[in-house]
Write a structure and sequence with these properties.
Leucyl aminopeptidase, nine-stranded mixed sheet, Aminopeptidase, Macro_dom-like, metalloaminopeptidase activity, protease, elongated
């Protein structure tokens, strides 16, 4: 998919000066301007409110310069990527940012501008945003373009419906990413999953016309080891515990964890981070036919733990468990799991926050700090040990769907932690992967959550 517009304009181009001003800074900026310009700006009603713009004409009717409103301190807390909102409103042209900002703020402006250029056009042509930005001085343009491309990859994968993004297509997308970066990809598919001891991946996906599989991408030969595990349920009917229509409508996004780790992998490989990366994606469809797994079935996992099935719609944790167990057999320095796992997480924190679980304080601190720098909000949730008994049904080692409905995100996280016993640093993200309404730099649809926060945290966590 073409994302050539998610790049900065060439620095040698003739550019329109752009002044990004907070509400408090507008009056001071105007004081230094000619009277005619003051009158013009006031006539346009520009006050520096967040996401507003004002263009100032030259003598020939073109644009001499432009103003972008950044709002006040309260609006900064309420809105990310305000510059993206401005970019979407500015007329066609190449712009050069003239006002000074600290590095993190400047990077947010530049990345937000790039992300504002994203549109999903696989099935319908859409006019591109015509306002382009020259990368501000002091920023690494290639780095920001790589991050934007990784986010665009995630969005494209989530936005594509299951008719064109089933396990075969997800494998093809992973293969294309591996080829682009010189990585290797091995695939275990169909009945070979049983032969190679991935029984729960096979069980969840066996009712689909498209065989289930485990994708295993590896890149890099030196440095600390990082494993990313992403839930790749390309469509989730709920299985025999079938979802109602209201809950099934967005299930093309149930591979959002896989899409997010692939976008993050593109960032890591594209930036050439000095580490050894492994990406594991169990790619399945949770479908219904005569071979579908049933409530009350008991499955034996790769790790040997038995699992009682009390709801076939709690399938994501099953496929992830086999992948996590594989990674844990040769424990990496850091393992991160990303999944659109529970509705309980959305009830707890809404669609904008990426909740995560970890027992490692250094990792938690690095993720929080990285999220703040990257403007990619996360929120730590507890591995609450007293709830362990909720996932122990008695007839088997584990219950995939404890009754009662309490603490659903926490019990799912505790379930996954049972399959990671050797890896010292582990985090699980229970993400949403969907932007329910348009926001600056984030149109309605698939969206990455947590990837930029993780990227920002890696140097501290892995001593890169």
């Amino acid at each position: 998919m073409d994302h050539t517009r998610l790049k900065f304009a060439k620095s040698g181009a003739q550019a329109i000066p752009l002044f990004a001003l907070t509400k408090d800074a507008v009056s001071g900026w105007l004081e230094a301007q000619p009277d005619t310009l003051k009158v013009w700006v006031k006539a346009q009603g520009f006050t520096g409110s967040a996401g507003t713009v004002c263009t100032i004409p030259d003598d020939d009717g073109g644009i001499a310069q432009a103003l972008a409103g950044l709002g006040d301190s309260a609006s900064r807390k309420r809105q990310r990527f305000t510059m993206a909102a401005c970019a979407e409103k500015l007329p066609k042209g190449i712009y050069r940012l003239e006002t000074e900002h600290d590095h993190d703020r400047l990077e947010e402006h530049a990345l937000g501008w790039l992300l504002s250029q994203y549109t999903f056009q696989r099935y319908k042509a859409k006019p591109p945003h015509e306002a382009r930005l020259i990368c501000p001085d002091g920023l690494n343009s290639a780095r920001l373009e790589t991050i934007a491309a990784g986010e665009a990859l995630t969005r494209d994968l989530i936005n594509t419906p299951a008719s064109d993004m089933g396990p075969d297509a997800l494998e093809a997308a992973t293969s294309a990413l591996a080829e682009a970066h010189g990585a290797s990809l091995s695939v275990t598919k169909g009945d070979d999953l049983l032969a190679q001891n991935f029984p729960m991946i096979h069980t969840v996906g066996r009712a689909s016309a498209t065989p289930p599989r485990l994708l295993d991408l590896q890149w890099g030969t030196k440095g600390p080891t990082l494993v990313l595990v992403g839930k790749g349920v390309c469509f989730d009917t709920g299985g025999l515990n079938i979802k109602p229509a209201s809950s099934m409508g967005l299930m093309k996004k149930d591979m959002g964890g896989a899409a997010t780790v692939l976008g993050l992998a593109h960032m890591i490989m594209g930036l050439g981070l000095k580490l050894q990366l492994r990406v594991l994606i169990p790619a399945v469809e949770n479908s219904i036919d005569g071979s579908a797994f049933r409530p009350q079935d008991i499955l034996t996992s790769r790790k040997g733990l038995t699992v009682e099935i009390n709801n076939t719609d709690a399938e994501g944790r099953l496929v992830l468990a086999d992948a996590l167990a594989l990674a844990d057999e040769t424990p990496p320095d850091l393992m991160i799991c990303m999944a659109t796992l529970t509705g309980a997480a959305r009830v707890a924190v809404g669609p904008d926050l990426a909740p995560f679980y970890t027992d490692t304080h250094k990792l938690a601190d690095a993720l929080r700090e990285g999220a703040q720098r990257a403007r990619d909000p996360v929120w730590q949730m507890p591995f609450h040990d007293p709830y362990e008994q909720m996932i122990e049904p008695g007839i088997a080692d584990l219950d995939n769907a404890p009754s009662g409905g309490f603490a659903g995100s926490i019990t799912a996280a505790l379930f996954l932690r049972r399959f990671v016993s050797n890896t010292a640093k582990f985090a699980h993200f229970d993400i949403y992967g969907w932007q329910p309404s348009p926001a600056p730099g984030r149109p309605k649809g698939g969206v990455g959550m947590g990837a930029r926060a993780i990227l920002a945290a890696l140097p501290d966590v892995l001593d890169l």
